[in-house]
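Figure caption, in words: inputs first, then the predicted bound structure.
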Amino acid sequence: MVQKQKADILKFKEMKRQGKKITMVTAYDFAMMSQVDKSDIDMILVGDSGAMTMMGYETTVQIDLETMLVFCKAVANAGKHTFMVADMPFMTYEIGPEKAMINAARIIREGRMDALKLEGGERIAGTVAALVRSGIPVMGHIGLTPQSAAQLGGFKVQGKSIESAKQIVKDALALERAGAFAITLEAIPSPVAKIITETVQVPTIGIGAGNNCDGQVLVIHDLLGLFDRFTPKFVKRYANLGQDMQNALNTYAREVRDGVFPDKEHSFNMSQDLVEQLQAELQKEGIL
Ligand code: KIV
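Bound structure (3-methyl-2-oxobutanoic acid present):
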């Protein structure tokens, strides 16, 4: 197996220039990241979607900075050949650039991430610019921004009207001006994503934004079939690991009940002589 080379933000820009698609999935723990790191995936996101996939909350706003740091540390322990981005959790950057810098520094330093992702366009461009000036690569995220889903009326497609599509284009331009190295476009019509992708110089990473983006991202639990609470229209399932896990667990339970497991291969033995000696001594000493 040829070990992939870890990409960086210049490589992603070059990939856009050459028309090579960028691949990204989420990751939240050591075991999953160990697999992703061995795969052909270019970049991972320690997403705040971990609030839902890892912790079972209904939305992404429940995850706090401390929990995000736990996920980042676990992922970083396995991520040797993959560029790693982490979400800044809800309300860790909206208060203003100064607070955002303090929290960002923790995710970069303690969480050992390569870059951060913030939700929002024009309204947070100042904070993005401040983080970029301080040397942190920042990915933008516009369209459906789950941290403000309540304000958007739920997890709904954005940019369907001229007005709202125009605002998303303006948001993309504001993020590019602020120095974002890439922009996630979530749940917007493909033609709007195409206009943005052709307008900005930085890569666009789509999720529910069609095939014209420079790259794609999916939540790993969705693509592997490990999350069945709901499945958005834009998710394609590439495996059914949930079913595979059920099969494995049920086989294990059956083998334990039937006395089939553990067999000799999975047990430690002792010579018959030693067993007899042990029994004799236990009896002599009155232990048995
Ligand atoms: O948290 C997340 O998983 C995300 C993706 C949907 C892009 O932000």
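The mean pLDDT is 97.
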